[in-house]
């Protein structure tokens, strides 16, 4: 097959950017990126798209929640009385605290403060762990009271007509907080990995995107809880 | 034609670099299974989706055999239910959705952008593994007895009554969804952040625009399916009533959530097809695409409008008549950007000297068949007509015209068009044209009778039917046989061409586009030197003029 020339062959020679001075190749620059700036922008944009995807993921279950809440408003109100808003509020504060330490960790990574960053990540992990632990205690309590939906659901409300609706409320309670807790656990796994890397001193003013992205994820998971708390505890 | 040949092309050093390419850069099974090269991952996907295509095809073929006679004699009704379900699930989740983005998009998109790879190569590889994990669920389901809910998993049948492998199937679909999400994320970030110097948004090939629109739809629709399937699994496992009316749930809510994904999923399947058509139309007419910006924005318009029409699947499911009216009205709008594309492609071909290579034959097939599929979609979107033909073979024919006549035609066009780039070899043109013809004839013979038989009242999803429908069903089965031959042939001659096909040069079609400026197959890092773009997309006038001048100078 004869070979045609390509536009590339025919285009006027274009001046290429001066190559000599730039690449002092950062050890964490991946080969397919031009420079650290491009790599940073690509990674953060990727996380934003991922968060968009997560919003739609949780969005679906929020829609279903609102549909049934409008169908069974009394059952929803009755269901929320089985939540302890005090525990929920305390846990909310714990989680917001973890967001603060996470944000500080990002700052520390940018400023190349190795020990500070590691400490903040450990604190984030600790607070996240407390949150999930408290959640587990709440689950235990609900299951103990026969509030776990399905065959295990033995609870009968004083107003028996509401029982079915309360079970549905508990389905949403467990599904929504369960998915949220799953995100927390995945986040905790990532934190462990980043604690090791931060301690090793991988991060500095030129390379902190992983911590920043971790932060985006963590804050997103927090914000989900900020919506879940009033919807499940305070209705 | 010039006398420039591959070996004395000044841009590419003859021996050393040209011989080293992404295929022979490394050897061994592990070098494929652990590769982060988007081109190799595309090949992995090509293998996998081809296998699933033939699995789905076998189910289809057995169904057509059953429908040869009015009696249910070959398959029991239960088996038939499982077969149409598995056919749908395999074809949609494991073939149509990943086929063009994950194979052709994966291979070509970064090269079109002048990038060395996608933004996140590891995620790209991970997406293939996730896809395969989902695929294993699918295979396990098939081996252990199948599933009979239809690919839509409608509740409460799927959650309370079906005693088949619903949980495993939905888990598989859930998992596979994340592989498309990761691919889409990669495409979006790569398009935003990794374009070559000088490659502005309006210099992008239309393939990229269309793939970008597809990625947005995948990104925003797939997670909704994921959460819906989670709720479905919760309901099935716990036996609670999220979607079961007997337990206080709302089955129509399930349909809303399901179609909120699954209608946009139609555009996830067709937009990449349109992406390929735009490339081929320009390459084989040697003209600028007529109305570049209109075609580019029509992709985004389809992506946007696609989110507003889901309830037209539910006109007879008990939604309010006012909602139905509005969704019917909105559905009509989707026709506008689709028509813009079709008219612009035909306007591009007008008075052009079109070369009838195989990809272009598929393109013509696509334009004709997609138009029929789209227009019958308007029949179905019209409230009154839909009530009449709902759940009949008319619907089956309609969506096969879009999915098979559209997407698979485009996929084959793309595979043939970029085959020389992917493998470095030309396919045998005569055989390819023959199989394109067989696919076209076989397709129409299979599915056109289904419009007729559906319109006169044959319902879908039954293994037996009234005897007066037999003639049309026999025609349909005969067509399916021709179609099967048309699909098997490319398998054979494409594999043959790997060894015996003539070597393809850098630019066998004389096409404009970054992918035609690098060697075939491309080197691991895609380009021998970082490209800088100084031309508009599809600048064939300038290209042809420059080519004539070079010839003159020689």
What this model shows, in words?
The complex is a heterodimer of chains A (235) and B (554). With 235 residues, chain A is mainly α. Residues 10-22 of chain A have low confidence and may be disordered. The N and C termini of chain A lie far apart (73 Å). Chain A has helices spanning 7-10, 36-71, 73-80, 85-110, 114-144, 163-200, 209-234. Chain A is built from seven helices and no strands. Chain B is an all-alpha fold. Chain B starts with 15 loop residues before the first helix and ends with a helix. In chain B, 57% of the residues are buried. Mean pLDDT of chain B is 93; it is low at 1-17. Chains A and B meet through α1, α2 and α6 of A and α7, α8, α9 and α17 of B.
Total number of beta strands of chain A: 0
Helix content, binned percent of chain B? 55-70%
Helix content of chain A: over 70%
Q: How many angstroms does the end-to-end distance of chain B come to?
A: 12 Å
Largest sheet of chain B: none
Arithmetic mean of pLDDT of chain A:
90
**Approximate strand percentage of chain B:** under 5%
**Mean pLDDT score of chain B, rounded?**
93
Characteristics:
heterodimer; A: 235 residues; mainly alpha; 7 helices; elongated; B: 554 residues; 17 helices; 68% helix; disordered N terminus
Describe the secondary-structure layout:
The complex is a heterodimer of chains A (235) and B (554).
Chain A (H helix, E strand, L loop, with lengths): L6 H4 L25 H36 L1 H8 L4 H26 L3 H31 L18 H38 L8 H26 L1
Chain B lengths: L15 H4 L9 H5 L4 H29 L10 H36 L8 H23 L13 H5 L4 H28 L12 H33 L12 H35 L6 H14 L15 H29 L8 H24 L1 H7 L3 H31 L5 H27 L14 H31 L39 H14 L1
Helix pairs in contact in B: 3-4, 3-5, 3-16, 4-7, 4-8, 4-9, 4-14, 5-7, 7-8, 8-9, 8-10, 9-11, 9-12, 9-14, 10-11, 11-12, 12-14, 12-15, 14-15, 15-16
